[in-house]
Amino acid sequence: RGQELSPEKLSQALCLCSDVDEQLKQLVTLFQFSENERRLRDLLVTLLQEVFSEFFPGCEVLPFGSSVNSFEVHCCDLDLFLDLEHTKTFQANARKPQEEKQNEDKVPLDTLSEDSILSDVDLESASTSEILELIAAVLRQCVPGVHGVQALTSARLPVVKFQHKESALQGDISINNRLAFCNTRLLQLYAEVDDRVRPLVYTLRYWAKQKELAGNPFGGGPLLNNYALTLLALFFLQTRSPPVLPAVAQLKELADEGEKAIIDGWDCSFPRDSSKVEPSCNLENLRSLLAEFFHVFADFDFVSTVISLREGLALPLTDIMASETSCMLKLGALNIQDPFELSHNVAGNVSEKIALRFQNRCRDAAKYCRSLQYQRKSNKGKTWGLVRLFQRGDNTEISTTEEGPAAGDGLVIYLPSPLLVLTEVQRRNLCGTEGMQQFCFQKVCTALQFVLQDVLKCSVSLDEDDENMANAEQAVLQEEEPCVGAKRTLAEEGTSVPDSKRPRLEAESSKEERVSWHCTICHRVWLGRRKMRRELRRSAAPNLSQDVDSLQVEAEVTEAIAQQEHGSGPAQPLLTFRVSIVSTGATSQDCRTSLYFTPLQEPVALFQDFFHFLQVFLPKTVMKYIQKHTLDSP
Ligand code: ATP
Ligand code: MG
User: Fold this and answer.
1) If you measure from the C-alpha of residue 545 to the centroid of ligand 2, how many angstroms do you get, rounded to a whole number?
2) CB count, 10 Å around CB of 260?
3) Which domains does the chain have, with CATH numbers?
4) Is pLDDT above 90 for 236?
5) Cβ contact 338:346 at 8 Å
6) Is the CB of 180 under 6 A from ligand 1?
7) Is 411 helix (H, G, I), strand (E, B) or coil?
8) Which of the chain's termini has less CB crowding within 10 Å, N or C?
9) Which of 405, 432, 408 minimizes the C-alpha distance to 594?
10) Is 51 a residue whose pLDDT tops 80?
11) Whose CA is nearest to atom 11 of ligand 1?
């Protein structure tokens, strides 16, 4: 069984190295599996394969994640994908009585009273939860040495968890996870293509763990997960000049027929054999690559770009929003697009606070890497190189504040900067950052109000409790009855709301601008939107449907959903909530706004559904509005 290395032992081992490059390589040696650890995992997989094959004929047990992606550390969990593609039925009576006699410790499923399964199950008609329960039952009853089995059927990625008693190894079994199996192979390939990849990723993973930036011990939470952090490191290597690693799109060109694959609709073609990839002519050493990583991300524009490993580029958000496939990406404080599933932001869970902390720690690290203490071994027995970099709590005094703009890490949506859609001339006309901030704040508020009120048929009024009420005392929005908006259509109103109806947002020239609105919505506008959109498009005149203003289409979709839900009769308020719109300053490139949502009534679960919809819907719709109404004006 592998032991976690204590920080003291690690420091000792690293101080013995002769230079920083050797320290990075040493880290791999210290953390990777021993022969025995690998053998134990292989044996466990073989055992599970044997047992599962009896109950799920034709199944395959495929390890993925850190056990096999080349970035393993002692004691990391064992992620398994149970591939049931060729399995039609679950065979409850697979284990025959003769066999039982030979295997005293194994008991047929149907002899146990608790969660026993008496009959065969047709897997084609079984739900994911039912299949996971079957897997859990097999693990509990037929796999020796396993305990703590638990089916987490309602998790974002449903899994069955278990523990191997003797080694204390934690395992997760999932089904429907072919994409993760595939991205694991991609990481393996990248690790093989260049031998600087493993030392760099191991170092960054350990650094991020020490600085409490990554880890997510229970899978959720606001930290970066190891997969996302690894993608960030690979992206960095793709964008060196000359590149250390090729982009995923370039790898695709190297795939031969047998390696071409479409999984869940996503193109996952890439070669399995690393010798097909040309070695890089980049000659940077590990010491300077690590320093450069920190330098690059200390000032990286995470807000208005999406990190694309597919292209090996940071793509402007506007490009992403214009793309059919990528526009579903849930934008967040860090946007890292999955290399295959292009609508998935692998860092979508990262809170703004953690994103800020990440940049601050990169800044600290970049500064440290410029010192001699990083670059050279100390002859006086002082800590040097990576050892100081890994110290917890060190360097914090040079960090800037990392608190986000209040309201915690709860229900926040970040909106990209309206500056993104300006022309150079328009940008130049906005003199000074203050003017820029006010401009952006006004733009966002106007657009947001339009989207909430006119597109989603919410009623919106200034929040009476808002402490900034005084600043905006004349900015009273025309009080509306709840859901009055629902009776108005865009066709009647035109696509813009008269200025007199907009709240005036005279913020003082302080750094923070904020306003809060009280909102009510009467319909489940998030349910069945896609279907309704398709139907509307189909029934519209075919030559018209292409060019129709998408904001207008969205408003019609809401109208149709409202009609379907309540007919033309009066609707009762469904949800009330507060949204605080906060802008915390601008630079010449960037001016983003955070939206903080607070549900004001039960049931909160319903609000959660609405919020999840808004996370994807709001940023792109608000930007569409700004684009439409800014480019036309001088
Ligand atoms: P460790 O378990 O050491 O933290 P890991 O790489 O195994 O590292 P897990 O969180 O266990 O990380 O995830 C297992 C695998 O699932 C990852 O290697 C990746 O293939 C996939 N995966 C994890 N998180 C995501 C995500 N946010 N998006 C897409 N795939 C993911
Ligand atoms: Mg794992």
Assistant:
1) 46
2) 12
3) 7-30+183-390 (1.10.1410.10), 35-72+85-174 (3.30.460.10), 411-524+571-631 (no CATH)
4) yes
5) yes
6) yes
7) strand
8) C
9) 405
10) yes
11) 65
Give yes or no for a contact between 503 and 471, defined as CB atoms under 8 angstroms apart. no
Q: Whose CA is nearest to atom 29 of ligand 1?
A: 346
Which residues fall inside 5 Å of ion ligand 2, going by CB?
65-66, 77, 79
The Cα–Cα gap between 519 and 498 comes to: 19
pLDDT at 343 over 60: yes
Res. 459 pLDDT band, cuts 50 70 90: very high
**Does residue 65's CB lie within 6 angstroms of at least one atom of ligand 1?**
yes
**Residue 271: CB within 6 Å of ligand 1?**
no
For 127-172, write each residue's pLDDT tens digit. Answer: 999 999 999 999 999 999 999 999 998 877 899 999 999 889 999 9
Query: Which ligand has an atom closest to residue 81 CA?
Result: 1
Instruction: Reply yes or no on whether the pLDDT at 633 is more than 80.
Output: no
The DSSP code for 4 is P
Q: Which of 33, 71, 73, 79 to mutate to test the pocket of ligand 1 (most atoms within 8 A of CB)?
A: 79
Q: Are 342 and 326 in contact (CB under 8 A)?
A: yes
Q: Is 270 in the pocket of ligand 1 (CB under 6 A)?
A: no
Q: How sure is the predictor about 401, in pLDDT bands with cuts at 50, 70 and 90? A: very low
Q: Running DSSP on this structure, what letter comes out for residue 214?
A: B
What whole-number distance in Å separates Cα of residue 452 and Cα of residue 578?
12
| Contact 202 CB / ligand 1 (< 6 Å) | no
- State if residue 343 touches ligand 1 by the CB under 6 angstroms criterion: no
Q: How far is ligand 1, taken at its centre, from the CA of residue 289, in Å?
A: 24
Helices 286-298 & 352-369 angle (0-180, nearest 10)? 140
Q: What's the 74 CA to ligand 1 centre distance in angstroms?
A: 16
Asked whether 342 lines ligand 1 (CB < 6 A), one says no
pLDDT single digits (tens) 269-326: 999 999 999 999 999 999 999 999 999 999 998 878 999 999 999 998 888 877 877 7
Reported confidence tier of residue 102, pLDDT bands at 50, 70, 90:
low
**Cβ atoms of 463 and 578 closer than 8 Å:** yes
Q: Tens of pLDDT along 495-532? A: 333 333 333 333 334 467 889 999 999 999 999 898 88
Instruction: Give percent of the chain with pLDDT exceeding 70.
Output: 81
* Ligand 1 contact via 346 beta carbon (within 6 Å): yes
The protein residue with its alpha carbon nearest to ligand 1, atom 30, reads: 180
**What average pLDDT does range 254-278 have in this prediction?**
96
Question: ipTM score of the complex?
Answer: 0.97
The SS3 call for residue 263 is strand
pLDDT score, position 449: 96
Mean pLDDT calculated for residue range 86-114: 62
Q: What is the pLDDT of residue 396?
A: 39
Top-confidence range, 98-102, 457-461, 568-572, 582-586: 457-461
What are the tokens at 447?
């657009």
Tell me how far the alpha carbon of residue 197 lies from the centroid of ligand 2, in angstroms.
19
Q: Which of 4, 70, 225 to mutate to test the pocket of ligand 1 (most atoms within 8 A of CB)?
A: 225
**Helix pair angle (432-449, 604-631), 10° resolution:** 120
Ligand 2 centroid distance, CA of 311 (Å): 26
* CA pair distance 398, 38, nearest whole angstrom: 42
Q: How many CB atoms within 10 Å of residue 309? A: 26
Mutate to test the pocket of ligand 1, among 226, 229, 338 (most ligand atoms within 8 A of CB): 226
